[in-house]
Hints:
By secondary structure, the protein is an alpha+beta fold. 33% of the residues lie in helices and 24% in strands. Helix 1 runs antiparallel to helix 2. It starts with a strand and ends with a strand. The mean pLDDT is 88.
Amino acid sequence: MFIQTESTPNPATLKFLPGQTVLDAGTADFPSSEAAGKSPLAERIFKIAGVTGVFFGHDFVTVTKDESTEWDHVKPAILGAIMEHFQSGKPVMLDAAGDPQSGHAEHSGEDGEIVNQIKELLDTRVRPAVAQDGGDITFHGFDRGVVYLHMQGACAGCPSSTITLKMGIENLLRHYIPEVTEVRPVAV
């Protein structure tokens, strides 16, 4: 098994490509070791000192490290953990808890049509691009013109995430949906 790695715009995050499907559908975010209980692979990666976050996409694993840890020290251990997991035949997720849905928060109310347009633009224009960088951005809410988005994987804590939100996503949504006035990140 050959696992490729790619840098991301977030220097604290690396993207690992095992050359096979990680999740059949959706994404899974593990911002702490406590959240990793439903994934044998995430648990295995969190056992490595310095790992602070794990994120799964369709064909990649994104790992975030703390500031005091050097990639040269943890990257070989992460590569080994991913390889051992896939060779073991164990599932990536223990059950359907891997969120096979869209990842977006539900929204009901008078703004339903606007929210559907926002989700459609996120799914077709934004999420594929941020997945290339090892992350995901999902809809969290819409209130009085403000769109609230949840950033995951490499996007969470990325130094360029504010620019991505304001200059990229906000401009895109405002262009197509006049009711949108602003985009803000949320921590879930």
